Fold:
Amino acid sequence: MLELVSILLFLAAALGGALNAVAGGGSFLTLPALIVAGVSPVVANATSTLALWPASLSSTVAYRRELRSSRQWLLVLGVTSVLGGLAGALLLVRTSDDAFLRLLPWLMLVAAATFTFGNRLRPAPKAGGARSHPFEHGAAWRPALLGVVLAQLLISTYGGYFGGGMGIMMLATMALAGMTNIHEMNGLKSFLGVAINGFALATFIVTGTISWRHGLAMAAGATLGGYMTASFARKVDPRYVRWFVIIVGWIMTIYFFVR
Structure:
């Protein structure tokens, strides 16, 4: 029975890693799978972070060239993301399973709604457009930078606590701040996501909030799924994958509301 559960979790994580490589939304599969497998809600959420973090790290490495063009943001938003991720993780480990389970449907609703309607929250960036950073405008960038930092702090705190839809929230913030190059935005989003989840994961490890038996199998599955998908991701119409994630996200949201 234990072997069957591990195999099912491995497959759920592999599909989750594949979805993250194409469109995001892998946690819609990994978190519910862990809870259905009998893992307590808080530990399941922490373990889901472990499952998907290695694949996120590989995405950041793939965007290393684009990150060179976003050096101005890396330090400021990187520190902000670390602080927010730690705050969210510490808040999670202090949340009881009953409280988290009551809150989970609403967190899933936020994630599903963000994923469904996130593209409408921001102007469409140009793939090859000229870069635009608040840093380039002298003293005028200060209010804009402060707004971006505060928004990133809130997003990263949410990310350390739960994280569903976090990437879309960050892209929306970057676009509203004036960034126009989608490749740079994705690179920066990947870097910040790794920082948020990495320090949240470290907190979960130190506090003993990880189910290693399930987490390591899922981490292997997610990494394999992401790696295998990356080779042909460009050939897949992202609209179809996105709609699949949206359907899964709303099904899981409804499930936790009626559970």
